[in-house]
Amino acid sequence: MAEQEHELPMLAGIAGFFHWLEEFLVILSGPFLTFGLGIGLVDLLSDGALFVNAPSLLYVWAIAQTVGVDGQMVGTWARVGRAFRRRAWGAVIGFSILGLLLAYVGFVAALVFAYQQAYHLTTAGALAKLGFDTVSWLWQRTAVSVGLVCLSGLLRYQKPRPAIVDVEGEIQRIENERRIQAAKAAAQGERLRGLVGMARGTVQAAGGKGSGASAPPLPSSNGHKSAW
């Protein structure tokens, strides 16, 4: 028999908090990515003057990209898990593809950073050492960023609608369950009565055999002649 699994203390509350945090990051990713794209566009239109006059905005842009892209990875795979438990296979496939794209971008970024630190290379040098084309890598990451801006609006959290209770259907369900339970109880009673009857028959049969063995046989009158 499989061992019954019990809920561990406080884990449900902790999981609920992280679920809230994941949804919060998904909500934040859209504004962060939009803000980062706006900084890049302003710098482009100003011919690079924005970052020259305010170099700290480069870090703001980098943080916005990181929160927007990498911050969605855990939330996306959490949605894959929830869709899998609901057996919503279309959502599972869609979120899995998005999660794999985010995992690819995060993996390449982490690998490039590791090569930069290990070999003291620039970003272009690390990409070249890994065999990646710098232009195609920038295209990929930018495409993911813009795609996530669109998805953040499409998948924005919505308050769940209150469940509409079908009163007649609920009454019918309760009545059906009552009938099923009554039928099961009646069948159980029939089985018990059958077992009791079989036990009585067995006891009576055993008693009849015992009384027949203790009685002496009667003498036969056909085998003897009368003395008279």
Distance between the termini: 84 Å
What class would the helix/strand composition place it in? mainly alpha
Radius of gyration: 40 Å
Number of helices: 8
Q: How would you sum up the major sheet?
A: none
Order of helices and strands: HHHHHHHH
Q: How much helix is in the residues? A: over 70%
In the predicted model, the low-confidence regions spanning at least 5 consecutive residues are 223-228
Q: What is the number of beta strands? A: 0
The whole-number mean of residue pLDDT values reads 78
Quaternary organization: single chain
What shape does the CA trace take?
elongated
- Strand content is under 5%
Helix and strand topology:
Elements: H1 11-45, H2 49-53, H3 56-69, H4 71-85, H5 89-119, H6 123-130, H7 134-154, H8 167-214
Helix pairs in contact: 1-3, 1-4, 1-7, 4-5, 5-6
Short summary:
The protein has a domain at 16-154. 78% of the residues lie in helices and 0% in strands. It has helices spanning 11-45, 49-53, 56-69, 71-85, 89-119, 123-130, 134-154, 167-214.
Molecular structure report:
The chain is mainly α. It has a domain at 16-154. The N and C termini lie far apart (84 Å). Helix content is 78%, strand content 0%. It contains 8 helices and no strands. Helix 1 packs across helix 3, helix 1 crosses helix 7 (134-154) and helix 4 runs antiparallel to helix 5 (89-119). The model is unreliable at 223-228 (pLDDT under 50). It has helices spanning 11-45, 49-53, 56-69, 71-85, 89-119, 123-130, 134-154, 167-214.
